[in-house]
């Protein structure tokens, strides 16, 4: 077989234009950051991965990149161990890349993930098989995603309006949902909440329900509500949402809400690492885990998570952050090879207008992405775009995602409190 020893690894930060999407910790900055990992091997095969790009995360990844030179791309356990040892020697802190919303994920899993994806890309190319085959084989040939609605301003302050326009009320959200469904064919809708008072967001969900009868809905305030507020909202939305996502902070708070709410509770905030699973199960805190290979340690460990969810009768779907095409390809292969994926996955895809991958490999058909069947991930870097988006990173001045700081630069009275209502 073609040799697959790692000879070179590069970490390239990029910035891509992002609209002013509102959430409970603030608002998206004008650019979202990602880091692109490229691995080269002695047999000439190359693989790619994608992850967050906060400064501390980049420092860890650069150290990891150096440490794995000379290892074989099939030796994933050894690669993870090497990365674990190497980053234990560093003193940097922070850098989760998710605006402080998910802080307790495993650092090793977060750093290992994009390297694992790049290695799997190379393994697939060496074996002439898609990544989904390396994960046990696809059980579906298309992966459904949901329309991810955000309250948003018409444009970033001081800049021209973007072509989505303003959405700060039900009418704006309905316009947004129509465009997303017309363009992508989504058959489920998620609303990012925690922005306005709960009653306003309940009214928005009810308006979406009336406009799109029969389409499964979800509301995610990112732990902006107290237990009492969450229980009240759950009663209001009974029969209307398929699940309520992270209404309140922590495993104990979620367990209290879960005991009262009729619908399932989902999370990408209080169960974000393997050691959260046992207490979550014992306390009955959640019934759906939103996996995310970027912090669950890559695709193989995400399948392990899927198995644990299956064992304990928990549902499984997929969380998203602002991302590019390499991440979407990885998410699609993983979702294809996860038998117990019980809901349409999240994606920020419709919000981006730039990418580092060549267009055409990934497309949405009736709200789902057909699973690539070629070798590896099935997406390729567009070198010119990678260089341009790296220059955009160098020029934009943003080095860490900071939704709260950006919001406070616009509204100095804004406070990031959880729970807020
Ligand atoms: O993009 C955002 O603003 C989201 O709020 C994101 O940061 C969350 O991590 C995520 O989408 C979620 O479901 O909580
Ligand atoms: Mg969420």
Largest sheet: 7 strands, parallel
C-alpha-based Rg, rounded: 20 Å
Q: Helical content, roughly?
A: 25-40%
- Low-confidence regions: none
Helix/strand class: alpha/beta
| CATH homology-level superfamily of the largest domain | Enolase-like C-terminal domain
Mean pLDDT: 97
Kindly give the count of domains: 2
Q: How much of the sequence is in beta strands?
A: 15-25%
Number of strands: 14
Ends apart, CA distance between termini: 59 Å
Major sheet: arrangement of strands = 7-8-9-10-11-12-13
Shape: globular
Ligand names: D-glucarate, magnesium ion
> Count the helices. How many?
13
| H-E string | EEEEEHHHHEEHEHEHEHEHEHEHEHH
The top level CATH class name of the largest domain: Alpha Beta
CATH names the topology of the largest domain as TIM Barrel
CATH architectural grouping of the largest domain: Alpha-Beta Barrel
EC number: 4.2.1.40
Family: Belongs to the mandelate racemase/muconate lactonizing enzyme family. GlucD subfamily.
Catalytic activity: D-glucarate = 5-dehydro-4-deoxy-D-glucarate + H2O
Keywords: Lyase, Magnesium, Metal-binding
Protein described:
By secondary structure, this protein is an alpha/beta fold. The protein folds into 2 domains: about 5-130 and about 380-395, 2-Layer Sandwich (Enolase-like, domain 1); about 135-370, Alpha-Beta Barrel (TIM Barrel). It has helices at about 55-65, 75-90, 105-125, 130-135, 170-185, 200-210, 225-235, 250-260, 275-285, 300-310, 325-335, 385-395, 405-410; strands spanning about 5-15, 20-25, 25, 30-40, 45-50, 140-145, 145-150, 190, 215-220, 240-245, 265, 290, 315-320, 370. The chain has a 7-stranded parallel sheet, with helices on one face. The chain has a 3-stranded antiparallel sheet with strand order 1-4-5. A two-stranded antiparallel sheet has the order 2-3. Strand 8, helix 6 and strand 9 (about 215-220) form a beta-alpha-beta unit. It starts with 5 loop residues before the first strand and ends in an 11-residue tail after the last helix. The relative contact order is 0.17. The mean pLDDT is about 95. The protein binds D-glucarate and magnesium ion. D-glucarate binds near residues 23, 192, 268, 320 and 322. Magnesium ion binds next to loops.
